[in-house]
Design goal:
Blueprint: H1 2-19, E1 47-55, E2 65-75, H2 77-83, H3 98-102, E3 110-122, E4 125-139, E5 145-159, E6 180-193, E7 197-204, E8 210-211, E9 222-223, E10 227-234, E11 236-237, E12 242-252, E13 259-268, E14 272-279, E15 283-291, E16 296-305, E17 316-325
Antiparallel strand pairs: 1-2, 1-17, 2-3, 3-4, 4-5, 5-6, 6-7, 7-10, 8-9, 10-12, 11-12, 12-13, 13-14, 14-15, 15-16, 16-17
Length: 338
């Protein structure tokens, strides 16, 4: 029985690498779009630090577990001094209010730099991506910005063969396999944003790479494939202090069909928010977040699995903690990413 379980785990892991989404998925993408699009590097008027943890399909042995750390900050004297915002030095207006939208000013042209570290473990396979990011932001008009970004780094792929039990130890699939690899990683993105809407497009894994290839030509081979993301959202004012943010994320990963996430977020001033999400043919999710102060905020989500895995899965948990450094305007929620 144990051999069967391990065989299923390795089969699922290889299928994920060869035919499905090879990068982690996030229910709280709206809380940190920077993970999917490097053009958001330096978009806020502070140093944005986030750490996240996702346990997918809990209860299923070998299910994906993801952890990440991201940090990004703007560069440019004008932007850091506040020309990108409508805030006075004391902190001033709540960025969720109508008046902020009316006084919104596109950010001064500036640069952004950042770093992302994402580790994803599925069964015996662990993939860790370490990328430096850069973006340039410019104003297309007095109220609209466009940013272009790039992420470049390495991907470290490890296959833990000790977790695999084979009926035939000489199976050519695993004989003399390269189970510890470093590969180059590259991604690009565009992001347009204004006071009450945003739209972005990005691609990850631009450079396809062979993974876990053995010296035997008949052995199983995997290749990474580009991941394309298209996302957009807009802010609707229900009152001066209550805003609704619908958003959508489309994902195209050849050869699987295009999939999408639909997200709805209801925000109360800059204090807390809650919402719901739907992932096509996979799950529904409930989300909640608290802006505890001008230094820290936190978000949590729980996915209710609707796919065939719901018979063995207890759902998915995801938590994100954000730190706002050099936050000279003492805002407690994002200004340009809602």
């Amino acid at each position: 029985m144990k051999k069967i379980i391990y065989a299923v785990i390795i089969l699922v892991a290889f299928m994920q690498l060869a035919q499905a989404q090879q990068r982690p998925q996030y229910t709280q993408y709206i809380f940190n779009n920077y993970l999917l699009n490097p053009a958001l590097t330096g978009i806020e008027n502070y140093t944005d630090v986030k750490a996240g943890y996702r346990s997918q399909w809990t209860g299923l042995q070998g299910a994906p577990v993801t952890g990440y750390f991201t940090i990004n900050a703007p560069l440019g004297k004008n932007f850091l001094q506040g020309d990108a915002t409508a805030f006075p030095a004391s902190g001033g207006l709540n960025p969720s209010s109508r008046l902020y939208t009316q006084q919104y000013q596109a950010a001064e042209p500036h640069h952004g730099i950042g770093l992302t570290i994402v580790s994803d473990k599925t069964g015996p396979i662990t993939q860790t991506n370490i990328d430096a990011t850069y973006a340039y932001h410019l104003g297309l008009s007095s109220t609209l910005n466009l940013a272009v970004g790039v992420a470049a780094g390495v991907s470290h792929n490890v296959l833990n063969q000790s977790q695999i039990t084979l009926a035939d130890p000489l199976d050519p699939v695993f004989y003399n396999i390269d189970n510890n690899q470093w590969k180059p990683d590259l991604g690009v993105g565009l992001w347009a944003y204004a006071a009450n809407y945003f739209v972005g497009v990005s691609v990850q894994q631009i450079l396809p790479q062979n993974m876990f290839i053995t010296s035997n030509n008949s052995a199983y081979q995997n290749k990474t494939v580009p991941h394309y993301f298209l996302t957009g959202g807009f802010k609707v004012f229900l009152s001066d202090d209550v805003t609704l943010l619908p958003s959508v994320l489309f994902k195209y990963i050849k050869p699987v069909p295009t999939t999408y996430d639909v997200n709805m977020k209801l925000s109360f001033q800059d204090k807390f928010w809650f919402g719901g999400s739907y992932r096509h043919n996979d799950s529904f999710a409930a989300l909640v977040g608290f802006n505890l102060s001008s230094f820290i905020n936190v978000g949590y989500s729980y996915d209710f699995t609707t796919s065939a895995l719901n018979t063995v899965s207890n759902g998915s948990h995801e938590i994100v903690i954000g730190i706002l450094l050099n936050n000279r305007y003492k805002v407690s929620c994002p200004q340009h990413t809602f």
